[in-house]
Amino acid sequence: MRVWRQLAEIVTRHGAAALIGVHEVKGSAPREVGAHMVVRPDGAFHGTIGGGQLEFLMLDLAREMLGRGRGPARIVDQALGPDLGQCCGGRVKILIETFDGRDLDDIAPLVEAEGKGASFDVECRMEDGRVRRELASEADAGPGAQWRETHGEDRTPVLLFGAGHVGRALVLALAPLPFAVRWLDDRDGAFPSHVPANAAAVRMRSPEAEIDEARPDSFILVMTHDHPLDLAITAAALRRGFSYVGLIGSSTKRARFEKRFREIGLSRERIASLICPIGIPGIADKDPAVIAASTAAQLLQERERRQLDRNRSPLALPGDT
């Protein structure tokens, strides 16, 4: 969800909105730092901080604050134990803020940054009881900043070669997930008339150029209509050194491709990194939708693995209650 765009739209249409955000997590919790909900004055909302009693309680507080009009932010330090009827066992700090038309100019740079399609950092400080935010520079937080937030849609790029049955099923499986899909095929009429918002259907002219120009953090999936084309694309992707290169096919297909890869001089390490068959182990069903679901889960696992080292603990908020 594009939090700031949603917030600005609700303020413009309804006059006010509340923002509920998970600021800090200790132990087990239903959502991670940075999860948000945007609440309308009538109680309707977008997003989630994990559901359950925690979410119900924070929504009640947000509606109460909206009823009093634009005012100071509230910080709630909440244990997720027997008092909430949740068994997560951790503790969270939730930041609740209210906004109205006076805040639209301050929100505008954040809306613009979201529109660029990448994550971005914001330096934050408390000022007269309200949170003031400024887009962060590449440097460390300035002397006036008390904590830093990360916003925007951090979508992992995926190059998907092939618009057959599995390719179509996979694009649909990835539609609600944090990926940006470049969907490639060299055939006329290969793509459906409509594709998900996070996918771009592209008539492929040069698979080698696509591999060369891809971001180094891209995931590569190869499932074209032609085995020689599969071989050429996969070899180029392995040679480039992407961390995830997936090839649709059986163990027999993998063995044949490995022989050709050795013949063209690919290293043993790069060949061993190939994911083939694709998908998480233990699922043998060959239905395209099942393959797609299994592969989507595998991509999420790989994405999660990458992000583990990038997690940062937020700085303490002043005036925690």
Task: Supply the key terms.
321 residues; alpha/beta; Rossmann fold; 9 helices; elongated
SSE blueprint:
Elements: H1 3-14, E1 16-26, E2 36-39, E3 45-47, H2 52-67, E4 74-79, E5 91-100, H3 104-114, E6 120-127, E7 130-135, E8 147-151, E9 156-161, H4 165-174, E10 179-185, E11 199-203, H5 207-213, E12 219-222, H6 227-240, E13 244-247, H7 251-263, H8 268-272, H9 288-307
Parallel strand pairs: 9-10, 9-12, 10-11, 12-13
Antiparallel strand pairs: 1-2, 1-5, 2-3, 4-5, 6-7, 6-8
Q: Can I get a quick summary?
A:
This protein has 321 residues and is an alpha/beta fold. The protein has helices at 3-14, 52-67, 104-114, 165-174, 207-213, 227-240, 251-263, 268-272, 288-307; strands at residues 16-26, 36-39, 45-47, 74-79, 91-100, 120-127, 130-135, 147-151, 156-161, 179-185, 199-203, 219-222, 244-247.
3D architecture notes:
With about 325 residues, this protein is an alpha/beta fold. Helices cover about 35% and strands about 25% of the residues. The strands form three sheets. The protein has a five-stranded antiparallel beta sheet. The chain has a five-stranded parallel beta sheet with strand order 11-10-9-12-13, sandwiched between helices. It starts with a helix and ends in a 14-residue tail after the last helix. The model has no long low-confidence stretch (mean pLDDT about 90).
Number of strands: 13
Number of helices: 9
Biggest sheet record: 5 strands, antiparallel
Low-confidence region ranges: none
Overall tally of structural domains: 2
Which strand order do you get reading across the main beta sheet? 3-2-1-5-4
Helix content: 25-40%
